[in-house]
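Most newcomers find our protein records easier to grasp once they have seen one. To make this concrete, we reproduce a full record directly below:

…
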Amino acid sequence: MLLVLGCLGLLAVANGLRPFRWTPLVVPSFFAAWLTVELAPQLLVLTVVVTAVLTVAVGVSWIGLLVTALVLAGLGVMVGESGRAAAAADTALAAWPEPAERTPEQHGLLRRYFRPMSFRHPDVERTVDVAYGDLPRHKLDVYRHKDHPTGAPTLVQVHGGAWIIGDKREQGRPLMNHLAARGWVCFAPNYRLSPKATWPDHLVDVKRAIAWVRENGAAYGADPGFLVLTGGSAGGHLTALCALTPNDPMWQPGFEDADTSVTACIPYYGVYDLNGETGTTAATVREKRLLARMVMKTRERDVYRLASPLSHVNADAPPFFVVHGRNDTLVPVEEARLFVQRLRETSAQPVLYLELPGTEHAFDVFPSIRSDHVVSAVGRFCELVRARITSP
């Protein structure tokens, strides 16, 4: 039994360290790697406990113990890589013109290691399902300090899910709790999803949510004049595209005059290349199996070009902090690297890039060692942008 469990664990660890990228196995490989890597501390403890119990109950299996030792070593490497996210974040933030002090999120060991799915913060309250439009998906949640500050800096968090699944309750909560506990007001909107929705419905809805926050955010204590936009995966794509196309009437039907500009943009593991510029297998498969069939519902090249953030990089882009995992199975890191390169060549504002070693897609969904460090870094970036805007 110990040998069987050890072999399964070794397979999971090997996939976590070097995710399998064979196309038919990409999605299961991602899910297995994501959970193994981000839950490595918990899995390490569980492996030790199970090994001890089986050894006492069944007897010593020296081959099983050897395999288990390899599993523990691999999990230890993952824990170490998670910790190195702090140094990577410091390096990324060093590109900002002004210095940034580290103010890490403080969690007890109980939450960090044994309650990783805990999403509550004692100082933060959440108001759910506030309507920002007329359609069923036009709802958003508001996160703010329980003391209800006014004139607070504002964050809008856009969920991911390949434009076809996902919900405002499922992503970005560690970051929103972190900022709301420090006096920010955070808004998390839903938007229409494919296949029922067709591009650019998703983008139009996010822009509509931004316009609503600018017009109504003050009622929740927000300062809509200072609005940072963030999101992951498909949400990262929508976030980047919104930031690069403010007030474009093509994407704002019926609210052409609304202000949809943002102060700064923080896309996590976003999709930046919908036009095949990076030439990766993942981008080709994404277009053929997902976008053409369910999201864009066309193969017209202009549609993909206009939907690609790479096509909209311009000198007026706001400050960007791009975050991506080096081991991302679903969105290759090459997309982020090219996007950052073009931004740095073109934009007049700072462009920061955090590439996280040993990191999969969706690493920030729940609190972990790595996500704690990244949340802290993003919080520091937000405060740096705020300091620059408000300084005399």
